[in-house]
User: Fold Pre-B-cell leukemia transcription factor 2 from Ambystoma mexicanum.
Amino acid sequence: MDEARMMAAHASLSGMASLAQPVSGEMDLGGAPMPQHQDIRDILQQIMAITDQSLDEAQARKHALNCHRMKPALFSVLCEIKEKTVLSIRGIQEEDPPDAQLMRLDNMLLAEGVAGPEKGGRGASRTLAAAAAGGCANDNSIEHSDYRAKLSQIRQIYHSELEKYEQACSEFTTHVMNLLREQSRTRPVSPKEIERMVNIIHSKFSTIQMQLKQSTCEAVMILRSRFLDARRKRRNFSKQATEVLNEYFYSHLSNPYPSEEAKEDLAKRGGISVSQVSNWFGNKRIRYKKNMGKFQEEANIYAAKTAVDATNAVTQGKLGSSPSTPNSSSSGSFKVSHSGESYLNLQALNGDAYQSSQLGANIQPQMDSLHHVIHATGRYDSIAGNPLYEPQHIDANGRWPSSSTPSSITSPAADLGSVNSDASN
DNA sequence: GTGCATGATTTCCC
DNA sequence: GGGAAATCATGCAC
Assistant:
């Protein structure tokens, strides 16, 4: 203890003689020092003298002082002084307002499914739902499981660390409390001081917890951004997927609006998602319309392919094959399920007859394909008068004739027995 | 590195 | 809600 503090303590004690009165319960009304006062002065003198003594002497003196009958009273007074001075000042400095940042972190961890009860991750499911709206189903399913696994890892680490911190906090608090209680026998430590110390410890551990929460949030953010980036990452479709989509597009050129059923079928066959099919058709329609010349060659290739399939189907039909003979197309989906005779008769049908024939929609893909072949081979002109062979499928407004009300019957299976808007072409 | 192709997203319209 | 159009962002050939 330095001289200044000793003097301060001395002054305090001198002024606090009155505080010690209740303990002794005796007072010299004439102002003469009572025996108790003399005791206190003696104790203080001894305390002051400790610094001048050797270690052994000091220990012995300390022990003697601890056993002194006035010690409880003295400690009580010192505790009171401490509370009135140092601790009150600390109290003002340390009482922080509720931490908004901590609340934000807690909310975010709850929202992401890291904190709170296990629920498969609300954030995860939300992200998964968002991802399911687009992107390859197969790839996404992998990414989903990957995302969930990583989120689960983060959750585990977070809870493990949190538990460690809480345990450490509890252990340390108990340790400090025991220490202070132990020390209260040799130095003035009030219960309030212990309580305050516990609060300080909790506050420090709370800061550490906040750092943990912050790190966890950052990890979740990084994970999410990686996942979302991966979702946005474009990958070209497989050759098969592109072929399946192009086959459908060019064989339904007059009305390239696949129904939900057709989209599902295309998605299944192409190994992509339905929304990817929708995206593809959206892009294709626009890009085809913008630059038909560029797509002509591609159109001819697919048209020829489909036409060959159609011809095969026709031939087989003429030869008396079963009406349900599968299309020889590699795609194997757009099947000609009616006889070749019906197909040939179609060219002579007017709109009404076409509708009543109940097969126009099914034949239309082949008609579209043939149109392209004919157009490409210069034979278009000779049959241009036939309303079935429109040189363009897009009207003056740049729209497909039925684009405002796309046919819901574009799937080969669904085409059966229904009226296709293509018939007007 | 550049330009084109292409899948995905966004915004607007009906 | 679905589609058109514009735009973004990436893949890929050169």
